[in-house]
Amino acid sequence: MKLMMKTFLAIYVGIAITLAILMTTAKRGEEDLLFVSTKRVSRFLAQKEPRHKYHCKKDADVCYLEGSPGSTCCNNKCIDIKTDNKNCGACKNKCKYTDSIHAATGSV
């Protein structure tokens, strides 16, 4: 009976030590993963800017700042409705294939 208890105790201690070692090495691996580079890999993701610089949802005056892409606030982004094909003369008014931006805005 004492031999059996000593055997179980030895197995229990061995498993506990093994798990402790595995947990510490797993945590070290997770720490290394936290500092992985955030550089984009896909060329398709590189074409779109994920974080638009000029958000105008709370303050439309942001669109009038120097360097802003346009003076119209549409979908929380500053756009120029005179040159943007996705907003043909007005917000959320997509230009049709045969339409042009100049016809929609009345400019030449």
From TrEMBL:
Q: Which UniProt keywords apply?
A: Signal
Q: State the species of origin.
A: Coptis chinensis
User: Pfam families this protein is in?
Assistant: Stig1
- Keyword match Signal: yes
Q: What is this protein called?
A: Uncharacterized protein
Domain of life of the organism encoding this protein = Eukaryota
Which protein family is it in?
Belongs to the STIG1 family.
* InterPro entries assigned: Stig-like
Which PANTHER family does this entry report, sorted A to Z?
STIGMA-SPECIFIC STIG1-LIKE PROTEIN 3
